[in-house]
Amino acid sequence: MQNFNSINFRTWSKLGQRGAFFGMAIFDVVEHFDNAMVVTADLASLSGLDRFINKFPDKFLNIGIAEQNMLGISSGLAQEGKIVFATTYATFITMRSCEQIRHYLGYMKSNVKIIGSGAGLVMAYSGNTHYSLEDIAILRAVPNITILSPADATESVKTAMAAAKHDGPVYIRLTGGLNQPMVYKEDYNFEIGKAIKLTNGGDITIFATGSMVYNSLEAAKILKEKNIGVSVVNIHTIKPLDEECVNFCSKQSKLLVSVEEHSKIGGLGGAIAEHLCSLSNHPPLLRLGILDQFRHAGDYKYLLEQNELLPEQIAAGIEQKYSLLN
Amino acid sequence: MNQTTELRIIELATKLRFKSLKMAFEAGKNGAHLGGGLSLVEVFATLYGGIASVDSKSPDKETRDRIIVSKGHCVLPYYSVLNELGFISDEELAGFETNGAPLYGHATRNLSFGIEFSGGSLGLGLSYAIGVALACKIGNRKNRIYVIVGDGECNEGIVWEALMSATHFSLDNLTVIIDHNKLQYDGNVAAIMNMASYKEKLEAFGFHVIDVDGHNIVELYEAFQNNISGKPSAIIANTIKGKGVSFMENKKEWHFSTLTQEQYNQAISEQVNK
User: Fold this and answer.
1) pLDDT at A26 over 80
2) Does A34 contact B at CB distance below 8 Å?
3) What's residue B30's pLDDT?
4) Are the folds of A6-175 and A196-325 the same?
5) Nearest CB to B118 within list A76, A82, A103
6) From the candidates A79, A98, A101, which should be mutated to test the interface with B, based on the most B CB atoms within 10 A?
7) Residue numbers in B near A64 (CB within 8 A)
8) How far does Cα B83 stand from its chain's mean position?
9) What is the pLDDT of residue B13?
10) Strand, helix or coil at B96?
11) CA–CA gap between residue A26 and residue A31 (Å, rounded)
12) Contact across the interface for B124 and A103, Cβ inside 8 Å
């Protein structure tokens, strides 16, 4: 088993979410579950799977550049008793094979874990074809799919075993690049469906997911200096949403904020908004995320900046909205 | 094939045609896929009656043969044969296309019914069958995997992705049956999207391919047993859409339709007087 200690946390952070998942965590999974397998669509080396393939050649299949077929094959394997981890870029696995996910995973409940890497904007100069802006919105509407979105590389490691133990289809959305900043510096308990409150502040709650958890923590620090108290909650499970946590925070705060490296439409913010509107009384919700546009490419930081998702921009956006409330 | 087996399959085929017509008639205004159901009667009868090893008393037995129906709308003979083999009771069969009942217009995975795969969205069964065939190989099982696809269904791109992978993984435990009844929803298969020779295409993909008369059980029976080590098999079953009912044969209008009492009577009398 991987040791959840600070030395490993730093190593994983260098590898990023995908590197930690396929370079480290997946070994625990196959050592714990003899029936686990990894399947990819011509993205083995890039996913950091070379070491895995060398060690477990019989537990790996490359299907070629055929994402739809990859999920059909994964489903057949799963219905015959395998736990299948199928991976390629988030954009291709959730959109090229969208109906396959609905049919084989949602409808047939095949025990397949789809690992979408490079979600959000991290594919940078590759351009919009390689960005995954809509994956949460699309998959959230499909019954029976659990959606996980880890905050950092350590949490990415945790999702691997949690997904393997979960009996049913799971989508794991991996965000951020190499050298991803650490949200977690010590071990903690990860449970699917249980949101984690990272800071306590009485004025505002930020619900953040994936790469935006770290940026939200930084934004909260900026706001704290301005005497605005912010609770930051890591929503690592987008579906099923931890509604109890949202209810609780809604009672404690004057403003709710969602931050995600995903379209402002239909993602975490959408999920929270759908839940909030069933409450008779709740604070306003500010949804921060990727703008509803295809824009020119650039480096990762440039793209986050264009979408106002850097910590100081998140803080400024929240401060402005908050000032209008008073 | 010995005479007993041949007679058993012929008798089964006759029952399937009767049952299919009865199911379609009783579905009333809800309608049923008659044409592409009737084209597969002999394929189902031969496969379930003389070839495949499946047992309704242990429907999830690991070593069973897997019959995967990708062409999910051919439920008339499919449910009928599962009923004949004891997977589906008469009461359950009578619930076909009634509110809330498990047997609807496209078969949905239910192992106790002997249904391996949820059909309905075309093209998805073959890719699934590749995964099943791989798992059976990995598990050193000696069973076979049969997958039934329609000729129009082969317009779907994922079918060709799956065919590509069947030979790549040397799945000689796999038999693909293409129901080549030459009609799809909008009309003649060759006119809608001409696939030319299925045999040549599948051979180019590395399959061992046999062309048969899909209503001739002797040819079908032999084709099912004609397999080659290291290669997946394919059977092009040349069939007639609506086979066995004069006014339905080769008529695209009978792809999905309802039966009046008069039409039903005539269809049944054609079976009796065959």
Assistant:
1) yes
2) no
3) 94
4) yes
5) A103
6) A79
7) 164-165, 168
8) 15
9) 98
10) coil
11) 9
12) yes
A254 min Cα distance to partner chain B (Å): 46
A106-128 tens-digit pLDDT? 999 999 999 999 999 999 999 99
Closest CA to B40 of B200, B208, B197, B217: B217
Closest residue in A to B115 (Cα–Cα): A108
Residue B94 touches chain A, beta carbons under 8 Å: no
- Per-residue DSSP letters for B104-163? -SS---BGGGTB-S---STTHHHHHHHHHHHHHHHTT----EEEEEETGGGGSHHHHHHH
Pairwise CA distance, residues B81 & B83, whole Å: 5
Please report the pLDDT score of residue A97 as a whole number. 97
For chains A and B, count residue pairs whose Cβ atoms are closer than 8 Å: 80
- The partner residues of B66 in beta bridges, in order of sequence, read B145
Q: What is the pLDDT of residue A88?
A: 98
Domain residue limits, chain A: 6-175, 196-325
Dist CA A289 CA A259 (whole Å): 6
| CATH entry 3.40.50.970 includes domain A6-175 | yes
Residue B274: its pLDDT value, please?
Answer: 79
Residues of chain B with pLDDT under 70: none
- What ipTM describes this predicted complex? 0.95
| pLDDT confidence bin for A261, thresholds 50/70/90 | very high
- Cα B46 versus chain centre, distance: 10
**What is the pLDDT, as a whole number, of residue B273?**
86
- The order of strands in the sheet holding A170-175 is A60-62, A36-40, A83-89, A112-119, A170-175, A146-148, A237-239
Assigned fold of A196-325: Rossmann fold (3.40.50)
Q: CA B116, B118, B123, B128 torsion: positive or negative?
A: negative
Give mean pLDDT, residues A74-99: 98
Q: Is-contact B230 B171, C-beta < 8 A?
A: no
CA distances A204 to A224, A262, B36, B245, Å, are 11, 21, 61, 72
CB B65 within 8 A of CB B143: yes
Whole-prediction pTM: 0.96
B132 to A76: CB separation less than 8 angstroms, yes or no = yes
At residue B52, what are phi and psi to the nearest 5 degrees?
-80, 150
Q: DSSP label at B29?
A: G
How far apart are alpha carbons B184 and B241 in whole angstroms? 9
Q: What is the mean pLDDT of residues A255-284?
A: 97
What does the pLDDT average to over A153-163? 98
Q: pLDDT value at position B166?
A: 98
DSSP 8-state secondary structure symbol assigned to residue A13: H
Q: Which amino acid is at A269?
A: G
Let me know the angle formed at the C-alpha of B184 by B182 and B188, rounded to the nearest 5 degrees: 55
Cβ of residue B109 closer than 8 Å to a chain A Cβ = yes
Report the pLDDT value the prediction gives residue A326, as an integer from 0 to 100.
65
Q: Which two tokens stand for residue A159?
A: 């999702």
CATH superfamily of B3-272: Thiamin diphosphate (ThDP)-binding fold, Pyr/PP domains (3.40.50.970)
CA gap B178, B167 in Å, rounded: 17
Q: Which residues contact B75 (CB under 8 A, 6 or more apart)?
A: B32, B33, B37, B96, B103, B104, B105, B106, B107
